[in-house]
Amino acid sequence: MELESNNHSVFYMNYHLILVVKYRRRVINDEISNRLKEIFEKISPNYNISVTEWNHDIDHVDILFKAQPNSELSKFINAYKSASSRLIKKEYPQIRNKLWKEYFWSRSFCLITTGGATIETIKKYIQSQGEK
């Protein structure tokens, strides 16, 4: 595990984000997934975020990304969902036929922290502090 740093901190912050298409509609193919990834990569530097891994199924995308302590994750996710929804519906108008309303993404999302150590390892490390 290689730690990253900025002026005031050292960190290792990785997240797994799952975004689901509204109503689980089956609209994501390779071309659309690639465009969604391009949009993600364009917006993410503004929030000190970088994509590590990207993949998709027909109704959702899975994203592994790195962030920094000053990254505003909820603001980034909302900005990304808004921009990508607008652009995808504009560039691929056939998608509108499969969605009932204006939205491309479901309102909810799944965001999971990831790391190199298990929770048990971290608990043991914290509990052992101050011991000789």
TrEMBL record:
GO molecular function ontology, one term from the record: DNA binding
GO biological process: DNA transposition
Membrane-spanning intervals of the chain: none
Pfam families the UniProt entry points to: Y1_Tnp (PF01797)
InterPro entries cross-referenced by the UniProt entry: Transposase_17 (IPR002686), Transposase_17_sf (IPR036515)
Occurrences of domain Transposase IS200-like (ranges): 10-129
Top-level taxon of the source organism: Bacteria
Name of the protein in its database record: IS200/IS605 family transposase
Organism (species): Velocimicrobium porci
Gene behind the chain: tnpA
